[in-house]
Amino acid sequence: MRISKVTLRKKLLKDEKTQSLFLDFYPPISNPKSGKPTRREYLRMYILEKPKDELEKIQNKNTLLRARMISNERQNQIYNNDYGFLASELDNRCFLEYFESIARKRSRSNSNQVKWLIVLNYLKEYSAEIKMKDLTIPFIHGFKDFLLAKPHFRIKGKTISQNSACSYFSKLTFALKCAYKEGVIRDNIAPKIERIKAVDVKKAFLTKEEATRLKNTNCKDPVLKNACLFMMYTGLRVSDIVKLKWSEIEHSCETGYYIRFQHQKTGNQQTLPFSEDAYNLLSQKGEGDESVFKNFSKNYRQLKLWAKDADINKNIGFHSFRHTFATMLLNSNVSVFTVKEMLGHKEISTTMNYVNLLNDKKVSAANTIKF
User: Fold this and answer.
1) Is the pLDDT of residue 266 over 70?
2) What is this structure's pTM?
3) Residue 326 has pLDDT above 80, yes or no
4) Which of 271, 286, 297, 310 is the most buried (most CB within 10 A)?
């Protein structure tokens, strides 16, 4: 087996005034913890590109001398099969930089990216510098308490919701799993961490009577009305409505109309059939990359006015139409597994949340009790 040679090298930094010193290992050596090949070790030592006076020249000379001593020490360690210095370098790596790199990879939508960046900012606020060796269970639990006590950014005197804290904290635990899997941290601490539990949130949905009333009520924004009704017919999220293109809508003589698209939230591919009634809500067919609901905007004020005109007093939002779609399917004796596929859920447990909403079977069961 060929023994790696250690070479001291210099890298000119962006300021073009300073050189960073690092060691180059060739052939690469394996990290004793992760098993991954390593080619460089940055010494965090710097010299001036063009020293101005004798003092700066002496400083450069002394820095280079120390760097060469480390280089010789590393060569001796490699001869003796001692690679502990790599583990030390691993411990001192910046976790915030690693977390940001994970955030960039995971972000599939602007809204999701914002959540990852919020967590990154909270981590920086919790601790200005986080090294891999700092990632202990007490440290992570401290960040959990920090999130649960974090003031709400809009409502004075309130903290962020527990579900928001749960979502933020889950992103950190996901990053910890990735770090262990990639050999960036030594211990798999993610399973040992006590999570923040999500609380059930009241899901606003429309009954068939309310949905019919809303459909027959005029709305000052016809694009918004058709988009909302289309969500109620298909179960699409509003984020999917925003990006829906004509090229994603297809028709077959055998199956009728269907959408072939990628979920904006989960990134999952799906083929979703829909009825002719739903198709009639669409405007005149456009070109492939044109938006189906052109000029659609999430105007909550207009949505509330439309619901009020339809004599609906529920606090509905754009996601309420997806909830309505799910409850209507379940009330029509559609299998919960079919509903799962229609909604594009990854887990059946997510779909089961809709079973607990008001449905015809529960009403029928309640009416059997008579004295």
Assistant:
1) no
2) 0.55
3) yes
4) 310
pLDDT for the residue numbered 112 = 62
The tens digit of pLDDT for each residue in 134-147 reads 899 999 999 999 99
Query: pLDDT value at position 88?
Result: 64
How far is residue 354 from each of residues 89, 169, 213, 271, measured CA to CA in Å? 49, 25, 22, 22
- pLDDT of res. 32: 63
- Residues of the chain within CATH 1.10.150 domain(s) are 95-192
**What is the average pLDDT value for the chain, to the nearest integer?**
84
Fold of 208-367: hpI Integrase; Chain A (1.10.443)
Give the angle subtended at the CA of 130 by the CAs of 101 and 160, to the nearest 5°. 80
pLDDT of residue 371: 62
CATH number, span 95-192: 1.10.150
